[in-house]
Amino acid sequence: MIRSRFAPALLAALLLTPACDRGAKELTPEEAAAKLQSDLESAETLVVNNKLDEAEKIFMRVLETDEPGNARALAGMGKVRFEQQKYDEAQRYLADAVAKQGDDAPLQYALGRAYQASDDHAKAADAYGKAWALDANTSDYGLSYGRMLKQTGKFAEAEKVLRDVGELDAKAQFVWSELGDALREQGKLDDSLRTYMKAQNTYPSDKQAFAGAALVYEAQGDNRHALDEWSTYIRMDCCSDYSKSVAQKKIETLKVDHGEGAEPEG
Q1: Do residues 196 and 216 lie in contact, with contact meaning Cβ atoms separated by under 8 Å?
Q2: What secondary structure does DSSP assign to 125-149, as a single string?
Q3: In this predicted structure, what is the pLDDT of residue 20?
Q4: N- to C-terminal Cα separation, the chain
Q5: What is the mean pLDDT of each run of 10 residues along the chain (266 residues)?
Q6: In the prediction, which pLDDT does 4 show?
Q7: How far apart are alpha carbons 189 and 98 in whole angstroms?
Q8: Buried/exposed code over 4-39 (b: 16+ C-beta within 10 A; e: otherwise)
Q9: Using CA atoms, how far apart are residues 209 and 176, in angstroms rounded to an integer?
């Protein structure tokens, strides 16, 4: 009799168990897609906040379980690896993302940064050029493209791009000193010097503009003005490798050539 009295309660408990399990029902395709987007947004925010390990877990779960080959997750992993300074891996992830979503300007730019970080200037220029072609209203894309063209010796192409950037945003940092370099490398010394002066007026802290102007004055045989520009450069940068190995040695050489450092005759 005791056993029969508890049997209905036991049966009810057993019947309730499947109902609890059914609470974790499978998501509809629409719900799964929304969750995926939410997870990716969360991971991207974690990257911005430098919580790279947490972001990696989400991106890798997406790639291994939810949606292998997801371009956004590939891009996210590329950015994680970039921040970890694992540039080869960053390039692979970002290149895979670009292969799936090549019309994304920020993605092309991120790939360019990864190539630039490992000094692959030609590939960086190619990626930056694609970003600039997709979005010619973002000066950073054009400025980075122009710089890499300059690094690969394509000075005339760099000049055109950097002029376009200057027209788009005259306050873009370093655009005028970069343009000055491109002009100087082509032997356009007067135009180059004017551009360096513009750079100095636009950004007085742009030490590259003073070094560039000094090199132009040297090429023109104007050692006095070259000394002035190198002296200003050294006041801004006393201790870098460039300052020690180039600028300071230039000062000593120019002083002798200008008669300031010559030994007096007996």
Answers
A1: yes
A2: HHHHHHHHHH-TT-HHHHHHHHHHH
A3: 47
A4: 132
A5: 51 48 71 91 97 98 93 98 98 98 97 99 99 98 99 99 98 97 99 99 97 98 97 97 96 79 43
A6: 53
A7: 40
A8: eeeeeeeeeeeeeeeeeeeeeeeeeeeeeeeebeeb
A9: 8
Q: How many CB atoms lie within 10 A of CB 61?
A: 14
Residue 28, both tokens: 């509809």
Which class for 241: exposed (0-12), middle (13-18), buried (19 or more C-beta within 10 A)?
A: exposed
| Distance between CA atoms of residues 88 and 81, nearest Å | 9
Amino acid making up residue 98? V
- CB-based contact 227:254 (threshold 8 Å): yes
pLDDT of residue 19: 47
3-state secondary structure 56-112: HHHHHHHHHHHCCCCHHHHHHHHHHHHHCCCHHHHHHHHHHHHHHCCCCHHHHHHHH
Amino acid at 87: Y
Quote the CA–CA distance of 229 and 250 in Å, as a whole number.
Answer: 11
Q: Note the pTM of the prediction, 2 decimals.
A: 0.84
